[in-house]
Amino acid sequence: MIPQLIADARKIVIKFGSNILADQDGRINPAFLNEYANEAAGFIRAGKHIVIVSSGAQAAGLSTMEKWARKADIHYKQALCAVGQVELMGAWRRAFEAHDLRIGQILLTQDDFGDPIRTLNMRNTLFTLVDEGIVPIINENDTVAVEEIKIGDNDTLAAQSAVLWSADLLILLSDIDGLYDKNPKGHPDAELVNEVRDIIQVRSQISTGGTNSFGTGGIATKLDAAQRVMSYGIPMILAHGGKPKALEALAAGTQRGTAFLV
Ligand code: ADP
To answer: Of 75, 132, 198, 246, which sees the most CB atoms within 10 A?
Structure first.
């Protein structure tokens, strides 16, 4: 199913979680970005249109502002993201330049998605960039997004962006092979769910012991994202982004993942 979804999709939103862009020590690894840019460029050469949602500003900031690493103050965290966002985009720019591709930065907040004029502007900018062969890279605007008005996670941001751009497919690349019947970290017998057609039913079925597995980890926001895009007729793939040539392998059917089908 996954190779078919990718083959059929012309407009694809790909979201990279920060844990796959960063090394074990929490620093952005340019080699990873080069690899993903290489694969995205392959998709573009095959005639697909790509929008990227990239986390990692904080991790990139830490690489530059080491002395701020232990600052818990929210303003320092936002300042760290402001510094890191530049580093992150610099790394993406260099990664895509190797393929003669330019990138465009789009920073958004929750408020932007609630305002019809802003959403229209965002949509037009996205369409223009992509039409001109530029790869838009979206992230949350951490400088203005304080806790109360935060989208909060890039799974939701990616889903909202996919809907806004009328994408054909959303791919979330995480540090997990896909959706399991229980949290695989701590449950070695957890089994991968290959396909999801009824997201509501799946959410009610999958639990660990007495506690719902979706309360922990980041899987809840991934299912929220699936539910959101599926309600607009957009399928989603959740897969491991840390495997070699993950996008190509998914397209070729040599890497597994979970397909959320509409
Ligand atoms: P990312 O940073 O890529 O957004 P997260 O760490 O936020 O990823 O979310 C993925 C994590 O969700 C997995 O590493 C896993 O430990 C946890 N998780 C909890 N329950 C499940 C489940 N049923 N299936 C898959 N992952 C789960």
So the answer is: 246
Pocket lining: 217 vs ligand 1, CB cutoff 6 Å: yes
Label residue 96 exposed, middle or buried (CB < 10 Å: 0-12, 13-18, 19+).
buried
Distance 220 CA to ligand 1 centre (A): 8
List of domains in the chain: 2-260 (3.40.1160.10)
Indicate which residue's Cα is closest to atom 17 of ligand 1.
217
List the one residue out of 228, 121, 90, 127 whose CA is nearest residue 172: 228
Q: Which atom of ligand 1 is nearest to the CA of 178?
A: 25
* Model confidence pTM above 0.85: yes
CA 184 from chain centre, in angstroms, equals 21
- By most ligand atoms within 8 Å of CB, the mutation choice from 175, 193, 224 for ligand 1 is 175
Establish whether residue 92 lines the binding site of ligand 1, counting it when its CB lies within 6 angstroms of any ligand atom.
Answer: no
Question: Which ligand 1 atom is the nearest neighbour of the CA of 216?
Answer: 19
Phi, psi values for residue 99, rounded to 5°: -115, 20
d(CA 93, CA 44): 16
